[in-house]
Amino acid sequence: RMPVVHKSTIRRARQSEKRRLRNRATMSSVRSILRKVQDAITAKKPEEAKATLRDATAALGKAVTKGVLKPNTASRRVSRLAVRVNALTASAS
Fold it and tell me: CA dist 45 to 6, 29, 39, 75, 90, Å?
């Protein structure tokens, strides 16, 4: 006997696939921006690090509003990056 596949099940599968792709795209761009901040920190470029940190904070906030990340996760990541950038600017001056 064939199992019953409800219309709603098919619709859910379609929706979750769309969401998965959207979430992956968002996370991919967030990771790219975070990598830029890390690179600026390792290259010891305080000005670039500050500028990219602003972009990263915005990107993480946007990911939260889209429901891709949880608020505390984004907050934690921003905090850790800010600590590293601030340490860099403190040592540079």
Answer: 57, 22, 9, 23, 12
Task: List Cα–Cα distances, 9 to 12, 15, 17, in angstroms.
Answer: 5, 10, 12
Q: Tell me how crowded residue 7 is: count the other CB atoms within 10 A of its CB.
A: 7
pTM: predicted TM-score of the whole model, two decimal places:
0.85
Q: How far apart are the first and last CA of the chain?
A: 75
Sort 82 into a burial class: Cβ within 10 Å, 0-12 / 13-18 / 19+: middle
Predicted confidence at residue 93, as pLDDT, reads 66
Contact 37, 85 (CB under 8 A): yes
